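Lecture 7 notes: from sequence to structure.

We start with a single chain of 97 residues. Read the sequence below before looking at the structure.
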Amino acid sequence: MEVLPCPVPASGGGTHERGEGRGLAYFMVASTLLITAMGTWVTEAIVEPRLAPYAGPEATAAIERLRPEERRGLIGAGLAVLVLAALLIASVVPEGG
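Now the structure, written as tokens:
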């Protein structure tokens, strides 16, 4: 007697002749809906009533111009993001492509 179901490919598709992978997909859909509904209920019925009432945002400060060191920091961070994005793209492009 087989205790564990037959393995399903990582793509989630049931490719077994007997269609045993289909049951796993139904379970994933049903459990996703159930866990979402339970999480919503717990948040609204248990967690939210225990929170203090929301009084709204505090007074916001006036927006000031950036200081030169803040501007340099933002430019440096932007360049770092561009360099890392270029490295990531270069690492996923195939050799011949």
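Residues 21-50 form the longest helix (30 residues). Keep this in mind for problem set 3.
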